[in-house]
Amino acid sequence: MSLLGNLPVQDNNSQPYSTNYLSCICLLLNPDANPLQSSNHSRYKISEEAQLFLTGPVSTILIPTFYTLVCLISVPINICAGLVFIRKIKIKKPAVIYMLNLVCADLLFAMVLPFKISYHFNGNNWIFGPAMCRVVTAAFYWNMYCSVLSPTKAIIACVAMWIFSFAGSMHLLFTEQTFHLTQLGITTCHDIQSSKLFLCYKMYFVTLCCLLFFLPLIITMVSYTRVIMTLSKDQPGVPDHSLKKRRAVFLSGTVLVMFVLCFTPTNLVLIMHQLKDTEGAQIEDNADILYIVYLIFLCLGSLNCLLDPLVYYFGSSQFQKDIVLCRKLCTIDAMKDFCFAMHSL
């Protein structure tokens, strides 16, 4: 998932092209490439600034290292959470269905992370083919928009949410995302796009952000704020369970903060960039800073895979009991193995 920073340029002998990486000042069609030759990848030349960014430490070391940590931690804890929900807790409960849905979204995201990690560690060179690039790109958006909608009627809402998220990313599945850069000898994935598709991408991402993020954001903020305010008030005639109320208020506030911090900055920068004027020198001057900010927010958004299990833990007393039980069983098994090993000596 990358910010679509379209900086179109026109070469006298080629079609206009642009780059998603905002630090890239220009992108020219390779004059040596045969336009009639059939190939799975389009071939381009890019500026020196673009080369420095694509081969720099931010995109080849910092980002993949961060994603590696997220992947290594999120996979086991989400698998554990999924097993607890399926085997120990009644799935018919709406809250459990919602949390199991989050587990699926987080695991989907974690499954495609190794492809992105390999891509960045390999110098932003995509080696898995154009089709897999489109799938991985779309899966990044599936995770984001499957993780932000709050279901009321759990099963129907979750199914509808996946359908909407999948439908919203169909454009990415059927649009070429891989481009070969002859100067660097690499094939990029979703980092370079044709400026001929600028208006199409602009309408696409503005619509996607508004319908699948900002609308749910408004609904979620209003709903959770009302819930927190209601729980914080003393209601006459209702027994005061202070501990449970404080726990519910804390959990509601945590979910709201996670939602806002993980997804709002990324979507806000994305839609701001799509809506701003794409002409003028100021865009090129501020491009590097804006994209670095976007990368930081994008990494921050991936933390939802690690934070979601905290919601499961604090939101379900049964989940807490099962985790404690699993820990005790693991401790007992470890002690048995240790005693057996000592006895064998």
From TrEMBL:
UniProt domain G-protein coupled receptors family 1 profile: residue ranges: 95-312
Record field: transmembrane: 61-86, 98-119, 125-142, 154-174, 203-227, 248-271, 291-314
Keyword annotations from UniProtKB, A to Z: Cell membrane, Disulfide bond, G-protein coupled receptor, Glycoprotein, Membrane, Receptor, Transducer, Transmembrane, Transmembrane helix
GO cellular component: plasma membrane
A GO biological process held by the record: phospholipase C-activating G protein-coupled receptor signaling pathway
Subcellular location: Cell membrane
InterPro entries: GPCR_Rhodpsn, GPCR_Rhodpsn_7TM, Protea_act_rcpt
Cystine connections: 133-189
Cross-referenced Gene3D superfamilies: Rhodopsin 7-helix transmembrane proteins
Protein's membrane topology: Multi-pass membrane protein
Highest taxon of the lineage: Eukaryota
Protein name: Coagulation factor II thrombin receptor
Organism: Labrus bergylta
Lineage per the UniProt record: Eukaryota, Metazoa, Chordata, Craniata, Vertebrata
